[in-house]
Design brief:
about 900 residues; six-stranded mixed beta barrel; single chain
Amino acid sequence: MSDRRSPSPLAERLLSIVLGDGEWTDSILGDLQEEFEIRADRSRHRARLWHAAQIVRLTVRGLAARVRRPRPVVPVPPQPPGDSLMRTLDVEFRYAVRSILRRPAMSAIVILTLGLGLGANAAVFSIVDALILRPFTIHDVDRVTLLSYTKPDDLDKRDSVTAADFLDWKKEKIDVFERFAAFDWWEANIVGRDEPEAVLGFRVSADFFPALGVQLTAGRSFRPEEEIFGQDRRVVIGHGLWQRRFASDPEIVGRAIEINGDKYEVIGIGPAGFDFPTGAQMWAPFAPDATVAANRRGDWLTAIGRLAPGRTLDDAKAQMAVIGERMSREHPDTNRDRKARVYTLSEGMTDAGVGPVLAMWQASALFVLLIACANVANLLLARGAERQREMAVRLAIGASRIRIVREMLLESIVLGLVAVPMAIFLAWGFLKLLVQFMPAKIARFVAGWYEIDVDGRMIFFTIAIGLGAAVIFGLVPALQGSRPRLAESLKDGGRTAAGGVSRLRLRRSLVVGEMALALPLLVASALSVVTVHRFLNGPQGYDADRLLTMRAILSGGRYETPESRRRFAIDAIDKLAALPGAQSAAAINIIPAQGGNWGTSLEIEGVPSDDPNNPPSSDYRTATEGIFATLGVPILKGRAFSDADREGSLPVAIVTESFARRFWPNADPIGKRLKAGNSDWLTVVGVCGDVIHDWFGRRNYPTMYRALRQAPPASVALVVRTPRDPKLLLGDARAALRAVDPAQPLFDLRTMREGLGERTIGLQYIGAIMLVFGGLALVLALIGVYGVMAHMVTQRTHEIGVRMALGATERDVIRLTIGQTGLLTAIGVALGVLLSIALNGAMQAGLLAASSDARIVAGLAVLLSGAALAAGYIPARRAAAIEPTVALRGE
């Protein structure tokens, strides 16, 4: 039994003889000692009598038990040290659980606070895991690599290889790869059975499916001889397309279906769930003609390779680097300075913009968790102030500081682990909403989107950060509570009940830290909301309201000639313009907010290129004469296209303001000439306003327009302007285009606003999630302020009573309390402003270079300060309402 000062030492010794020395006896005596100390505050004499009476009562009961049930003495075998430690931990664990249950309200607050912080991190981890770490469900995906062959300034183009370079690679003896393949985007129109349908497909080389380790559900994959141009009319259809359009017909293999006006034999059916590249519904052989096979400038192919057994990613990088350098020497005109690079498939095919966004989410979730930990630490410090006498007594009677720290940390760990199920539940609900509200036609292009869910990895991660958080928020209160300063602790626990000046200083520091972390989160969330609003509703360079859009792919035997494609576009806009309620109609190859892009190399008359092997380029559009009026794009100089700009007339072009500024900065562009790719010389007849084609990378990019009648494209987008709701024209528009060509499928029928919303859906998710993080940070920070100020009022009750007894008014008390709140808030907000400035670069990376606005930072600093003062005002009012006599009598 530990040495300690006892009010009844002889009685305690007698009780120890009766009950036996041990932890049970020590626990009973310790409880009696704690109760004695409490009673001694009121009357030490009565407390001594009570303590002696309890000792006698327990001794009598122990003797009576021995008389009734005598126990034989059984030798106890020696126990190994591990068993003793386990028994000790078991006792301490039970004590921690009882301690938590004794304070259900505070424990519930701690668990809820931790659940929010852990849940936010768990949800973001699940998103990162699905979209970055494991976006593909391909067998042995770590063995599949992606190859690129680009210049140093094109490192973001990780899926770029020319057809000629790929075919040269196939001729090489590249032993580092077991299988080697390539694929290219293929938009296909299926005709027959049901309505015509536009389906996303890919042209793939023969080794495509083996390289990915894919076994088809039925049929076979492609053969090398089917890569020959003219012998490529074969197709493998996706499992979903087979079920949806062909009613899971097992006899479809071997039949012919019409695609793009040609007959294709179905030779296989893909496995369920396989849609690689993301969104693919069918695959046909990559069989380039002689022109495509010799092309070393158009890097639109994606090449993949499966590593051979025993070979590593570093082996592939080394071998491809050697091959790439040799090809650069052999083809200096096109391949000079190009480098062959090898990535893992997950790394290479992940959108470069996803990483910064998810990093910003993870950092935001971590900030929320740190704020939650600060709140919990504040609660535990407040509780430690209440238990300081208990700890002082235990230390005085011989308890070790290590044991007290261990017990308090164990209690924190139990709280952290209990919060894990709530965190997982909150994360599960959030992830379900996240996945559900993403439009299906967008989600199918996001690799790993439907894999976002609760799994073993996420649960393990949540448990790990729960334990880490428990150590973070529990260690400081445990160290504070275990300080072996008996006299000081008893003094702190007497008159002030404050928990000590050092403890109070620490609690204030935690509040300052919460405010400093909350402000950058508020700035990031506000900036994301403002950015998304500007993207959706700000100036686009065109009028996005009251526009109906649709697309058609003109390919295959039905539209092989420029005349057939020209005729479809002209007939279509004539039909659409004649619809009741239609103001105008036009056609263009690429409309804003559609996604995708057409570009072209340029030759500017009178402006020599710095590098003839790498000519300048711009975006390329080909449109009918009514496109600028229909979209609402202003003509700044010269004229728009007219009916006279047709085949056989002078080839003309219209350029954007940014195009003119780049290539003719000090000259009038009207009348200047240029070439686009292999075109004839084009005369510039007008300058139009810049248009934001894509917020993700084509903002006010130099663009040139050609007359569609002079250069009809293989893909057209049709635009109709109406003074009423564009959706009212959907049915009539379908019927009108069916009259032009009943076998031509249309897709993406929607309003321009809907298209803009879908194109920026990722930004909207960023804004919504950042708004949630900002809201959590604000609420938790205000709770922290309120908790500290409320506790300060409680601990200073006697002081406030004295002040009011000496003449202080309610206003004086409120001013005193609010002043302390204002000081903490001012320090925290000032640190938060500095942190916001320091993190500005990370915010820009996660929000498409949307720089922070000083007005936003200042406004949110004022908002946070006002909310904190309001949170502190409630305890201040309570302090002002204290009756001096009650406060003094309470002491």
